[in-house]
Amino acid sequence: MQSTLYKMFAPQMYGLCLRYTANSHDAQDILQEGFVKVFENLDKFRWKGSFEGWMKRIFVNLALDKYRSKVSLLSLEDASKTIEMSNGELNALDSISEKEILNLIRQLPDQYRMVFNLYIIEGYSHKELSEMLNIAESTSRSNLARAKMILKETLQFHSQKIEKAI
């Protein structure tokens, strides 16, 4: 049964782990720890929701724990406006693969990557992030804005490279 669960969910959970780490080694560590925790706690799953969602929560929590143990978040000044993508960035997105986008996210500084993943991909609110990461809501908003700014600048650079190649 464990082998079947692993084969069924490992690729998806590894992808989740990669979003939260800066390298594949750390992602593999979280993947392994996550499945150990899943197998140890299978009897605690109450079948009152998605099994995949239950597993995902375990892996996200492990990634957060690993992050907290490595880095203490820096308090950054509040950024009041979020960055909106213009048509230029959207065109760059059309020409970049999902793998390249995930790689760009993985290159974000840890505190920005955590907030970006939890807010944009997982759908947590800034209030929830402030509690999960032990930071102020304004720091969560600021980290998200800075992550978006970095990604926007990287996409603009990518778009310019494409235009020159054409």
List the defining traits of the structure above.
166 residues, mainly alpha, Rna Polymerase Sigma Factor, Chain: A, Arc Repressor Mutant, subunit A, globular
How are the SSEs placed, and which strands pair?
Layout: H1 2-20, H2 24-40, H3 51-70, H4 87-94, H5 98-106, H6 110-121, H7 126-133, H8 137-165
Structural account:
The protein has 166 residues and is mostly helical. It folds into 2 domains: 2-70, Rna Polymerase Sigma Factor, Chain: A (Orthogonal Bundle); 87-165, Winged helix-like DNA-binding domain superfamily/Winged helix DNA-binding domain (Arc Repressor Mutant, subunit A), CATH 1.10.10.10. The chain contains 8 helices and no strands. It has helices at residues 2-20, 24-40, 51-70, 87-94, 98-106, 110-121, 126-133, 137-165. The N and C termini lie far apart (52 Å). Mean pLDDT is 79; it is low at 71-93.
